Each structure stands twice: as structure tokens, then as C-alpha cells.
Amino acid sequence: MAILKLDYNALWESICKWSRKAGRAATRPVLLMWYVMRSKDTPRKDKWAIFGSLAYLVLPIDILDAKRLPIIGWLDEVASLAVMVQKMSKYITPEMQGKADAQLDKWFPEYVEYELIEG
Questions:
Q1: Which of 24, 28, 29, 36 could cross-link 91 (Cys pair, CB 3.0–4.6 Å)?
Q2: Which ranges of the chain does DSSP label H, i.e. alpha helix?
Q3: What is the pLDDT of residues 8-62, one digit of tens each?
Q4: Which of 106, 14, 97 is nearest to 61 (CA)?
């Protein structure tokens, strides 16, 4: 019986492209799930679930098309990621959070936590 392997490199490339469009805030939970999925401590079945959720989010495949159903079209992706983050949060470590924040700082160096709005 052949064992299917996850193509981490292809998924990472898609995450990188997607993140530029999505922005820092939307990318953080994706990166956290990425690091949980890559952890040796995460069970294989959970890695598959995370892989599927991330692939559904970042790949150009949709069950509900965002162009035809603008709000509903992206809600299925957001809901999928939110459920996955909730289910897998037990695996998130401070080290993973640090890695995610460091990657975000590389991708979004102009980010400031608080912005002053001048009127």
C-alpha cells in the first residue's frame, strides 16, 4: 500500500502568495497552523486535517465562489480555519507563536501595533 505524502513545499509557496493579499492579521492563524502541522508532536491525522484546511484556504479552489457570492464565498474558508485553530490550539506553543510573529515581521515590516489617526 502506497503512503501519501504531504507536499509541504507547494503549500508553503501558496501560503506565501496568499499572505501578501490577506495581510498580517489574517495570516497569523495560518502561520500558527503551519507550525502546528510541521511539529513532530502533532499526530498524523491532525496534520492531515490542518493540511486540508490550509490548502482549502490558500489554493484557488472553492466550494462557494467568492466572486459569485461575495460575502458567503469567503465565509466557508474563514469558518474552516477558525474551527481548525480552535481544535488545534492545544498544540500551539510559545515557540510557535514566536516563529509566526518573526515570519510576519519579515513579510510585513511596516506593521505597527497601534496607529495614530490624525484628524
A1: 36
A2: 8-22, 24-38, 44-58, 72-88, 94-107
A3: 888 999 999 989 888 898 899 999 999 999 999 999 999 999 998 898 888 766 5
A4: 14
| C-alpha torsion angle, residues 21, 6, 41, 26 (rounded to 10) | 10
Determine the angle formed by the axes of helices 94-107 and 24-38, rounding to 10 degrees.
Answer: 130
Cell of 29: 492563524
pLDDT category of residue 81 using cuts at 50, 70 and 90: confident
Q: Which letter does DSSP use for residue 41 in this model?
A: T
Query: Do residues 28 and 58 touch, judged by C-beta distance below 8 A?
Result: no
Say how far apart CA 55 and CA 58 lie, in whole Å: 5
